[in-house]
Amino acid sequence: MSNCLFCRIARGEIPCRKVYEDDEIIAFHDINPAASVHFLMIPKAHIVSLQEVDETHGALLGKMLTLAPRLAKEQGLDNGFRTIMNSGVGGGQEVFHLHIHILGGGRLPSMA
Ligand code: AMP
Ligand code: ZN
User: Fold this and answer.
1) Residue 1: what pLDDT?
2) How far, in Å, is the centroid of ligand 1 from the Cα of 57?
3) Ligand 1 and 75: CB distance under 6 A
4) For a substitution probing ligand 1, which of 17, 19, 32 has the most ligand atoms within 8 Å of its CB?
5) Average per-residue pLDDT in the chain?
6) 94 C-alpha vs ligand 1 centroid, how far in Å?
7) pLDDT tens per residue, range 21-55
8) Which CATH superfamily is domain 5-104 in?
9) Phi/psi zone of residue 105: left (φ > 0), alpha (ψ -120 to 50 degrees), beta?
10) What is the CA(76)–ligand 2 centre distance, in A?
11) Cα separation of 110 and 107, whole Å?
12) In the chain, what are the domain boundaries?
């Protein structure tokens, strides 16, 4: 996806404050943080959202979820963290490249 914002970040065409990178995944700080620590983890491959995944994505999604606590801890979230995946228009997604929000620090408001 040539003009997808997060594909462009993954290709290094748009700068980000990087938290982590390997051959399949990149994580970077959210540009508009909703907590004192707020970063996003994305697959480098363009997947629109959780609505589009199937069993072929299982290993990648498992890798992302198991990486989340490690990166959260590295960012100082010793006390826990929140993960959010907005999927599709109905889920409030704004950037249509699958991402996991990881946020925390201080006390987060409870969620419905
Ligand atoms: P969502 O509503 O789940 O699609 O969230 C998209 C997130 O991407 C929002 O929290 C934005 O603040 C964040 N975002 C948008 N542009 C950038 C960018 N260039 N670098 C980092 N985060 C961004
Ligand atoms: Zn993309």
Assistant:
1) 75
2) 22
3) no
4) 32
5) 96
6) 7
7) 999 999 999 999 999 999 999 999 999 999 999 99
8) HIT-like (3.30.428.10)
9) left
10) 28
11) 9
12) 5-104
